[in-house]
Amino acid sequence: MNILIAPDSFKDCLSAREVAMALARGIQKVLPDLSPIIAPMADGGEGTVESVIDATGGERIKLVVKDPLMRDIDSFYGLSGDGKTAIIEMAAASGLELLGEDERDPWITSTYGTGQLIADALKRSCTKILLGIGGSATNDGGAGMAEALGVKFSGRFGVLSARGGGALGEIESVHMEDLIAGVEGTEFVVACDVSNPLSGPRGASATYGPQKGADPAMVEKLDQNLQHFARIIKEQLHKDVSSIPGAGAAGGLGAGMMAFLDAKLSSGFSMIAEETGLEELIREADLVISGEGRMDKQTQYGKTPFGVAQLAKKHKKAVIGVAGSLEEDAGELYQKGFDLLLSIQEKPGDLAESLASAGPLLERTGERIARMIQLSA
Question: Looking at domain 48-268, does it have CATH number 3.40.1280.10?
């Protein structure tokens, strides 16, 4: 029997690889002759780099870049086994978690560090760059990212030195002459699972600005600045990014990637599934196991386990969903491709206790799955 284990991470607890390995250990305790295939997954957010590295035999590249406030930090990105594809999590350079609560300020935070990661990948002659854009601390429309790649922005008094969402309103001209070599001929794919436009009531500033430190007055001004930035892009680069669904992702980084790098937006799960060859692994499996820390009816809206289940059903494979927390409304998922849902919980306990014991609980869940397999043999 061929078993494929393709979970997402259990957030704040175990990586996707650790989840998969724990389940596999449990299965093998009962069925030692089975060797489950491990395929750690992600949806474009945290864990994206590790998923592609694991699948392709790649490596993690470490380098120093600027954080959202332009301070030096240690960061990283992934390089595929063949050295042709870079996998970048923008949160590793421009993420909200890099800042303290009192440091959050989208008026000045910049995506410059994300641009540095992209620049390093281009210098290594990558021909495809995958970018996960969840967890941003910024609202600069990707201007900082573009600057790190050689794009210059000028205003009334020459080249701008200010950065962040507050500086966008001062831009009068975009200069692409010094764009870093390698952009042309490189495919850029952005993992984007939101449909927010760049500006307006559902735009980057209104939707995500408050969690990044913006008060109502700043939200209004940031939105105006993004509208201005979009007009400049349309006039000078002849690209209208203002109303494209997903342009407002990561404080407008989605728009910036499309404007300056001709990037395409893709479902995060679809992007990772393609890079890891997930569908072929599912085609060869008899049973597919996926999961995440919490499963409920929201799992069906772009989450990794749902994507795995949909591919599995395409090939008529049985699917088990494993969760740290299985909510009451998770039953809806039985109509969405899952054949069995299992919680790893064995007794009442608080969250801290569950997080601390997730590994052993997953192993024992793997054992239970193996015993069910024995019953059906």
Answer: no
